[in-house]
Design brief:
The chain has 299 residues and is of the alpha+beta class. It has three domains: 83 residues, Rossmann fold, CATH 3.40.50.20; 141 residues, D-amino Acid Aminotransferase, Chain A, domain 1; 58 residues, Dna Ligase, domain 1, CATH 3.30.1490. The chain is built from nine helices and twelve strands. The strands form three sheets. Strands 10-9-8-11-12 form a five-stranded antiparallel beta sheet.
Length: 299
């Protein structure tokens, strides 16, 4: 089979995507597939049309690659592709809209609101502590925690992430994540951070975070996270692989809060989904093959 591996792209997650794409391309070759690696740029349509692959492995992250944009291009070219379709990708990437879907599905979400960026500058948009998130970035790009004693306010210079901002009440507790493959949860990992929080740098820097897989949780909590991950996957209309992130406020109200769902989880050496797949007995190459086998058009 001829597989086009889409990587790189235009988003803030370009470097991570290049790493994911390289790992996927290596696996595809080991699996015996013909591989064309495409570093996505403005000529991506011409590159795909020239390559004429049987399937596209979408290893892009962030805007255009993960938000329905590239999925739309592949639909027009009638090239089957991995991961979720246009609608699920777009909704999951839009954090405010995803929260609406989660709440409608009965999942617990953090109290919050959508504001214009001007409401951040020199003032608190809600009582501290709170979390500020770009409305449509991934991998914790631009996420900022603001605590009571912080001598910090946003300005035009330190907020380059667009007009629309999601502000949420800070939820303390244990950081959990769960991957779902073909409507089955692979397991739950707890993430501990030696310093700071689970931001972009800690996600993709060796030693920045510690993964405990499987998470050492009370069975009731572990099972509830699994249930919530599958519910989120299905409520958004995801297919193939997704990964959802949670906070368990053990010392507070005891609730499990869903933070977001990633429709194209990382495939780097530090990525959580391949780690959870390995825990479930699925090797990296086998996971890549499963994603290729599940590739299709949205319709």
């Amino acid at each position: 089979m001829h597989v086009a591996v889409l990587k790189g792209g235009f988003s803030a997650e370009r470097e991570v995507s290049l790493t994911s794409g390289a790992a996927v391309a290596k696996a595809c070759r080991e699996l015996g597939h013909e591989v064309t690696e495409i570093d996505v740029s403005t000529d991506v349509v011409e590159q795909l049309f020239g390559a004429r692959p049987d399937v596209a492995f979408n290893a892009l992250h962030g805007r255009f690659g993960e938000d329905g944009g590239m999925q739309g291009v592949l639909e027009l070219l009638k090239i089957p592709y991995t991961h979720s379709g246009v609608l699920a990708s777009a909704v999951a990437m839009d954090k405010p809209m995803a929260k609406v879907i989660f709440a409608a599905a009965g999942l617990t979400v953090a109290q919050g609101k959508v504001v214009h960026k001007a409401e951040l500058f020199g003032q608190d948009p809600m009582p501290r502590p709170y979390v500020v998130k770009p409305a449509n970035e991934g991998s914790s790009v631009g996420v900022k925690l603001v605590f009571e004693k912080d001598n910090f306010f946003f300005t035009e210079q330190n907020w380059p992430y667009g007009e629309t901002v999601l502000v949420e009440k800070y939820v303390p507790g244990r950081e959990l994540t769960a991957a779902v493959l073909d409507d089955v949860c692979l397991g739950v990992t707890e993430i501990t951070i030696p310093k700071g929080f689970y931001d972009y740098d800690n996600k993709y820097t060796a030693g920045g975070s510690v993964h405990i897989c499987p998470a050492q949780l009370p069975q009731k909590i572990y099972d509830e996270v699994i249930k919530m991950a599958v519910t989120a996957h299905q409520a958004l209309g995801c297919r193939s692989l997704s990964r959802s992130d949670f906070r368990w406020d053990k010392q507070g109200d005891g609730k499990i809060y869903i933070l977001e769902t990633n429709t194209q989880p990382g495939m780097t050496p530090l990525s959580l989904s391949p780690e959870l797949a390995a825990y479930a007995g699925i090797s990296f190459n086998a996971l890549v093959q499963k994603l290729i086998d599940g590739a299709r058009l949205d319709g």
